[in-house]
Automatic annotation (TrEMBL):
The lineage of its organism: Bacteria, Bacillati, Bacillota, Clostridia, Eubacteriales. This is TRAP transporter large permease. Keywords: Cell inner membrane, Cell membrane, Membrane, Transmembrane, Transmembrane helix. It comes from the Bacteria. The keyword Transmembrane helix applies.
Amino acid sequence: MSFTVWFPLLLLFLFLFMKIPVAFSLAFSTLVYFMFNSSSQPTDIMVQNMLSGTTSFTYLAIPFFTAAGVIFNYSGITERLMNLCELLVGKFAGGLAQVNIVLSALMGGLSGSANADAAMQSKMLVPEMERLGYSKEFSTVVTVASSCITPIIPPGIVLILYATASGVSIQEMFYAGYFPGFLIMVAEMALAGIQSRKRGYKPTRDRIGTAKEFAQNLKQSIWALFLPFGLIMGLRFGVFTPTEAGACCIVYALLVGALIYRTIHVKQLLPILRESVEATSGIMLIICASIAFGKFLTWERIPMIISEAILAICHTDWQFLLLVNILLAIVGMFFEGGAAMILLAPLLVPAAQSLDVNLIHFGIVMAINLTLAGVTPPFGAMMFVSTSITGCTFSGYCREVWPWIIMLFAVLLIFTYVPGIILFVPNLLMG
């Protein structure tokens, strides 16, 4: 490849190393390419490609689901779900740690964002865990690790990004996320229980909630629990597309908050809108810049070159999947999961297709790996979010996190080489 091809790539890595935001790094690197190649590719094309990201019907699902998650937080549903979790798992060793993990699984269908979940639970649960005698380091690590579940359970934003980048069905990606998310929750609960018993962290309850207590709590939380179920059924029977599902979630969340719980008022609409825009804008900027960058990669056949290089090294699907896992574990420490997915999915999917790797299975493996990388020092995104809120030191976090990293990557390897676990629900629902 010529210098005009390599130079934008080198610039991109230089900018990222300098910690310039990903969106600006991508945009400026792409601009340099178009400037060097202005005779054949006018710079207007870059602008057109960037704007196309904002008009994509598929990408509209991201701001819709993000806004729905914000509205659910304002509606008080999060607190009601937490009370339900305590009734279910509060009697186990490390009661609040267990609540933390199960709440992340339930919030997967609401927030869809690991960083949002980590921030919320760092504010809500970590202070209470410390008050009951849990160490700050343990509480922070549990919160960060549990937030890994959130993006895997629909409507995780990273699932939408992969589906859009690879051309697979968003609906099937949603179906494929449920069972792995549940198994990660079980594995985390087991580890939290083992560590809590060793450290003497007591349950918050002496028994599982009674039928009366469950009935009272379900009356309050059933509206939140209905959302993931309604999402599955609506997609399964073609009531709405994934993008339309996001719009329906916004309407549903507003109706629940305003009419049933009466916690959302007109004066809160502006803060809700502001938070939704702030949460969405960063992702959409990255998407717009990455679309233009992707055109540059496609014109220069870089995905095909990378695919051929990988195939020259990896002759079987298991070798390819191992190499990808190692690559993503490294890249994910430096890139936010969504940004990494946008950049890497178009590069790796051609090689996966050549080796007959199921693309739904491959997408979930990528999503889990990039999410787990957010837990890993020194640059994990969820690590930074939670430690900045809880005040946990970097050294304290590092001492506490390694058993969780080992467990999570062991689970990832099982998912990688037993695709039936990931494909169980899609095969069940899609036939």
